[in-house]
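Translate sequence into structure tokens.
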Amino acid sequence: MKKREWLIVFVPLFLTWTFDFVTKRWAQGLTGIESYGPINFILHHNPGAMLGLFSDLPPVLRVVSLSTGGAFLLCTYGIIQYLLPIKSLTLRSGLSILLGGILGNVTDRILYGHVVDFIVIGSPSLSSPAFNVADALQWVGYLLIVIAIVREGELLWPKNNTRKMYWINPGFQLKYCYFLLAIGLGVGVISLVFSYTYLRVTMLELTGNNQAILDKFLIPFTITFGFITIGFSAGLFTIGKIISHKIAGPIYAFEKFIADSLDGKNRPFKLRNHDEFKHLETLAIQIQNHLIKHGALPSTANAEPLPAEILEMEGSLMAEASGKQTGA
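Result follows.
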């Protein structure tokens, strides 16, 4: 995507967050009910998530859990934007608006420990729960995402551009995945030691050596942190699998192209849209032209492009055989 298109994708995120922030600061000055037809403005503090979810959790655990969840959503957003196989400005902008709304509420939880709600639709006898601009814009984001999926579903999961196998070179790919997994677990352990120690020392300073209070907060914290670390590490493993496949696939396809060219087969060389090393397509054309010029290759194609599944199966078998020979 071009820089201008990335700007279209990311600007809605900041606009959503800014608009929500400004309206909430205005709402903080409300002292009563202001009604404009069915739309009513009244200040309300929501200690939980959207529509009051998680309100019954202990304050410290609630704020920490929901804020951490927002941070992980931000990371997930960046990963999805990177891995999306199509440009789809509608889908990408919808994700930005959705995240902007979520971050608007996360900001409140970090600053105040609660979310500022101030919009109520309806009458005293029948009305909606209190919500804010962030909540409303999140639904706009959901709508854009659904529209994009309905309109561009075939592009999101193209049959002719879908990989049938993800382990083209298992040795290389697993090494890549385990490396990312180790990084995730390492960062998780370091963060756990620091945050657990910091929290424990702080609680000892504030409450004294009260084991019941320590257990009440430290045990759920450790368990929650453990689940988050495992989930994050598993996500890194999956991402490593996808990215390494985009590397291993093109390398094997190019090796196959070179071998066929040396055997006198003029075969088209084409990578998938989001494969790495796309410059190999240009290099392949230069190699073909050079071989044709010196009479080592027919001037017209005499071999059909290999189906993706055959390339992947051959690549996997070749990598496995090479691994066995190396082991021998």
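Note: The mean pLDDT is 81.
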